[in-house]
Amino acid sequence: MTISRILASGVAAVALAHGAAQAQQAPVIDMKAAEARAAATVKQMTPDEKVVLTLGVMPLPGFPGAPPPADAVPGAGYVPGIARLGVPALRETDASLGVSWVMGLRKDGATALPSGLAQAASWNPDVLYRGGATIGAEARAKGFNVLLAGGVNLMRDPRNGRTFEYLAEDPLLSGELVGAAIRGVQSNHIISTIKHFALNGQETGRKYVDVKIAEPAARESDLLAFQIGIERGQPGSAMCAYNRVLGHQACDSDWLLNKVLKGSWGWKGFVMSDWGAVPGVSAALNGLDQQSGVQLDPAPFFGDALKAKAASDPVYAARLDDMNKRILTAIYAAGVDKNPAQPGGAIDFAKGAAVAEDAAKQGIVLLRNTGNLLPLAKTAKSIAVIGGYADTGVLSGAGSSQVHSEGGPAAVRSLGGDGPFAALMSQQYHRSVPLKAIKAMAPNAVVTFRDGRYITDAVEKARQAEVAIVFANEWRMEGADQPDLSLPDGQDALIAAVAAANPNTIVVLQTGGPVLMPWLDKVGAVVEAWYPGARGGEAIASVLFGDTNPGGRLPVTFPASVDQLPRPKLDGSDWVEPNFAGDPAPGKDQLHADYDIEGSDVGYRWFAKKGQKALFPFGYGLSYTTFAGSGLKVAGLKAGFTLTNTGKVAGDDVGQVYLVGRNGQKLQRLVGFQRVTLAPGTSQKVNVTIDPRLLADWKDGGWTMPAGSYSFALGRDAETLSAPVSVKLSGKTWKD
Ligand code: GLC
Q1: In the listed set 526, 544, 562, which residue is the last one of a domain according to the structure?
Q2: Looking at CB atoms within 10 Å, which of 77, 247, 690, 732 has the fewest?
C-alpha cells in the first residue's frame, strides 16, 4: 500500500488537460480517524444493537416478510440505524450509471450517464469523477446514503452481459477510472461500493460458476484493478460477488475477504454481500460484514441469528465487534451521520444532462473514416437515417443498473417472460433522439428515417440520399451473456444492403461491448457510441457533424473472431438458461471457468501473447485530425513523451505507455496514460509515474520486480507501438 500510494499510478502527475485538478478536489476521507471513532462507538453498543447493522433487506413490496420500514426509500437495500448512538439507517440504491429505476416504484427520474464502457473510452478520470459526483448528488437528493456503484470487473470475456456496466480489460485503466468515480460519488458524503469482488467475469450461471485461477494471476489482474480502485477512491464498502472462486462463494471466501482485501491490503471498510449471495453464517468468519437483500437468501444468517452465535462463541463475538467497527468506519469516513440524506432534495437535471453529454462526447470512438466521409457537412442536402430506434431514443443496458431518465423511457421493448424480474429484462431507450439532433445539425437537408425492419424499404431511402446513417444496436442485460458477438435482429444484413446501395454509409453502433462487423470493408465510416446516456443523441450528432472531434479510445479489445479468445465457447452457455436471479437448474450447479488459461494476460495481453491481430485493438481510436507521439524517455519509474497535433483541427489524443519487454522476455502491460487536448500544430509534454506493481510479478506472498532491462513503447493503441526504449532498473521485492 505504501509503495503504491507514494508512486502515483500511470495517470500523469501533472494536472489533466481537462481541468481535472479542480474536479478531483473531493473532501479528504480519513479512514484512520473514522476507525478510531468507530471503535469507541462499538464499545457503547448493547448485544442487541451489535446485530442491527449486519443485516439488510430489500425495501420493496411483493417480497416475503415484513413490509418495508417506514423510513425506507424504495430502492435496492435498507439497513436499520441505531438512533441511541446517532447511527443513521443505510438506504441503498443502485448503481454505477445513475440512480436506478427499481421498476418505476419511485416514479422519479434520474440522470442516465453513458455506460461504464462509454465513460471508460474517454480514458479521462475527470469524466468518471464528474459522473460519480453527479449521480451521488442525485442519490442523496432522493434520500439514499449508499450508492452501489464502482463496478470494475475486468472484461475477461467480451460476451459478458454486464460488460456495458464495467470499464475495461486492463487493471490500471480500470482501477484509475473506478477510483475517480468512487471519489466523485463519495464527495456527496455518501458511501460508494466497489464491486463485484472478485473475478465475476460472466453472467452465465453467475451464482455458482466456480472460477479457477492461480493467486499470482489474480493479483496481477482483477485484484490489482480493485486494489488501485480502492487506493484511489477509498470506497467505504466493497460488494462481494455471486460467483465461486477456488470452490468458495466469493462472499464466503476467507482468501478473498480476509487474506487479500482486509489482510494484505489493510482495507478498513466493510464487505456487503451481493443480493442473494450468502451461503451461511460462516461467511461472517470468512470476512463478510453485512448480509444484503436478505429476502433473496435462504435465511437471515446475520442479524439476530448472529446474536446467539456471539453470545456462545468468543470468535463470533470478536468478529461481530469488527463487523460493526467496519460499517461505522465507512459511515463516519464519508460523513454520512453528520450530513444526513433526506428524500425530496432538488435534482438539477440540466446539470446532470450536461455531464452525461460531455461524457458521451469524450467516450465516442471513431473506428473507421474512409475518405474523410466524417465529419458531415452541415450543408448536406439529403440524409437517410435508418434503424436503431434513432427516431425515438438511445439504447441503455438492463438489470440493476437500469436508470430511467427524467420522464421515463421513450420506448420499452420487452423480452417477454414472467416472474418478479421480467420487467427488468427489456430494452429501454432514453429520451434523447438522434434523428432530431441530426436534423438540427443540418437544417436544410432532407432527412428521412426508416426503422430498418424491411431492408428493401431502407435500401430505397439510402439510394435516394447523399449519405446513409445506419444505427445498429446490441442490447445487453445483467443475468445473461451474449450467445455470440454478432449484431442481432438481422442488422448485419441491413448494413450490408444499405452499404451496397450507398457508398457514403456511416454505421453508428450502440453496443454493450465488442461486436463483429462482417460489413466493415463495405462501409465508409463507423462510430462506436456505446450506450450514450441522457443526451446521447446530441452527442452522436455533435461527433457526426464535427462540433465534437472524437477522442475516445477503446477500453476493450474488439476481437476479429471468438476463436481468438481464451474460451471460444463460454462455459455453460450451452445449457445454463439466461436467468437474472442466477439460480441453477436442479442438479446443474457444477459450472467451471478456468481463468488459468489466460491468467493475468487479459484482453490485449492475450492477443499480444498469442500474436493475434484484433478487429480493433485496445486503445484504438481515430480523430478528425492527426497526432504524433515522440520522444519517449524513461528514467527510473518516470516516463515522459510528447504528443503533437499534426493536423488542421483541435482534438484530443490519448498517450499510452506500454511495458513491452523485461530481461529479454516479451510481455505487454499498460503502465501509463493521459488524455490531452491539442490545438492544431501544438505539442504537449506528458509525464507519467509508473506503478512498480505493473513491472513486477506476484510471488511468495508479495511483489517481485526483477533487476535488469525493461523496454517501454509509446502506443497509439496496443498494436501500434513506437520503437522500444530500454532502461536498466534495480530489482526489489515488497509486500502490499
Ligand atoms: C444485483 C447486482 C448488484 C446490485 C445488487 C442490488 O443482483 O449484482 O450489482 O448492486 O443486486 O440490486
Answers
A1: 544
A2: 247
400 Cβ inside 6 Å of ligand 1: yes
Query: What would the pLDDT profile of 425-481 be if each residue is shown by its tens digit?
Result: 899 999 999 999 999 999 999 999 999 999 999 999 999 999 999 999 999 999 999
- Ligand 1 centroid to Cα of residue 148, in Å, is 8
Q: If you write DSSP's letter for every residue of 449-510 in order, what string do you get?
A: EE-SSSHHHHHHHHHHSSEEEEEEEE--BTT---SSSS-STTHHHHHHHHHHH-SSEEEEEE
Average pLDDT estimate for 563-580: 87
Q: Do residues 522 and 631 share a domain? A: no
Q: What is the pLDDT of residues 370-401, one digit of tens each?
A: 999 999 999 999 999 999 999 999 999 999 99
The rounded percent of the chain whose pLDDT value lies above 70 is 96
| Count of beta carbons in the 10 Å neighbourhood of residue 568 | 9
Q: How many domains does the chain have?
A: 3
Nearest protein CA to atom 4 of ligand 1, as residue: 400
Ligand 1 centre distance from Cα of residue 273 (Å): 9
CATH code, domain with 658:
2.60.40.10
Angstrom distance (rounded) from CA 566 to CA 603: 9
DSSP 204: T
**Residue 120 domain boundaries:** 31-334
Q: Is 274 in the pocket of ligand 1 (CB under 6 A)?
A: yes
Residue 11: pLDDT above 60?
A: no
Shared domain check, 395 and 326: no
What was the pLDDT predicted at 3? 40
For position 105, what pLDDT does the model report?
A: 81
Query: In this structure, are 230 and 282 located in the same domain?
Result: yes
User: What's the 260 CA to ligand 1 centre distance in angstroms?
Assistant: 22
Residue 275 Cβ inside 6 Å of ligand 1? The answer reads yes
Gap between the Cα atoms of 413 and 562, Å rounded: 28
CATH number at residue 186: 3.20.20.300
Q: How far is the CA of 449 from the centre of ligand 1 (A)?
A: 38
In a domain, 502, yes or no: yes
Q: Which three cell numbers stand for residue 665?
A: 522476455
The model's pLDDT over 515-535, given as tens digits with 9 standing for 90+, comes to 999 999 999 999 999 999 999
Q: How far is the CA of 200 from the centre of ligand 1 (A)?
A: 12
Residue 76 Cβ inside 6 Å of ligand 1? The answer reads yes
- Identify the residue whose C-alpha is closest to ligand 1 atom 7: 275
Same domain, yes or no: 394 and 316: no
Neighbours of 530 (CB within 10 A): 29
